[in-house]
Design a protein that fits this description.
With 67 residues, this protein is an alpha+beta fold. It has 1 helix and 3 strands. It is elongated, with a radius of gyration of 14 Å.
């Protein structure tokens, strides 16, 4: 039987929401083992001078705990 844990992280990108998701998962993978899925809980943008300056996502990362 496997036991999983869910943790929430926030990631940003100046390129796109997709890039923010990829960066969040890449960074989480450097610390967490056995990541199985990620759910985009929220997304938002930061605006400067009428233009999008930054994309942000809040991710729910699910990973399986070691036995």
């Amino acid at each position: 039987m496997s036991i999983a844990r869910v943790t929430e992280i926030s990631a940003t990108s100046t390129k796109s929401f997709e890039d923010a998701v990829k960066e969040g998962i890449r960074r989480a993978s450097a610390t967490l083992r056995n990541i199985r899925s990620a759910w985009v809980k929220e997304h938002q943008v930061r605006v400067e001078g009428g233009e999008i300056a930054e994309y942000q996502v809040n991710l729910m990362i699910t990973f399986v705990l070691d036995d």
